[in-house]
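Listing S7. Sequence submitted for prediction.
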Amino acid sequence: MENKQKILNMIGLAQKAGKVASGEFSTEKAVKTGKAYTVIVADDSSDNTKKMFTNMCTYYKVPIHFFSDKVSVGHAIGKEFRASLAVLDEGFAKTIEKYFEQGLE
């Protein structure tokens, strides 16, 4: 299985465990309260959204990834579409980071 699918699966598992904050407001709150271990923003999000999360994650020292598209990210957590989500569990975040490091090819 390719890493892109593995990442989506891990996001799904994290969601089932209640360890995902999704949507712009919840993701922002998770980062600012120090609960986010990694942030994923859909590649097809607006430039404004990408810039806001890039700046925020840089400031709060949270890893950020631009990944897949809104529909795939949303489907991974059982929603229609999502531009952003934060993983609230260190274990899930580390596994997802590992897959990103291995590359998405």
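Caption to Listing S7: primary sequence and predicted structure tokens for the chain studied. Helices lie at 3-16, 24-32, 47-60, 70-76, 90-102. Residues 3-102 form a domain with the 60s Ribosomal Protein L30; Chain: A; fold (CATH 3.30.1330.30).
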